[in-house]
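Single-chain item
Fold in token form
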Amino acid sequence: MNAATPDSLFGRVGGIHCAATRQIDKLQPLLLLAFRLYVARVFFMSGLTKIHDWSITVALFTNEYHVPVLPPAAAALMGTATELSMPVLLTLGLATRFGAFVLFFFNIIAVVSYASLPDIAVKDHYLWGVLILVVLIFGPGKISLDHWLQGRRSSRF
């Protein structure tokens, strides 16, 4: 008897492993949705904070955040617009990889431009960067408008 036949110990363990893997794979769309929603909430809430008092936001970009190349008012406007628009794309799963790409680089610029960022906050940015990178690489998952639109496009051709 071969060690890998279905009746052998290795065959049974292999079968259980494959069945468990198929079940775990079904969770991938939920995990990608959770990543998208978590990151979207973080950045969107930050954008809402910025529009709450625009004069304080511009002052922060003038005195604290040193965005390279851009004048503080332009950096404040572009940063706030990014934090309010890209999370909507992530939440809906629409143009998801574009939104993730923009937020990934936005996240890097945020860390670089704020020199006095505490270590704990840098760790948060690392976490957000990794979550965004997962969505960027693997896509939005099946629970997204991108997936739905791709299915509609595929059925037409």
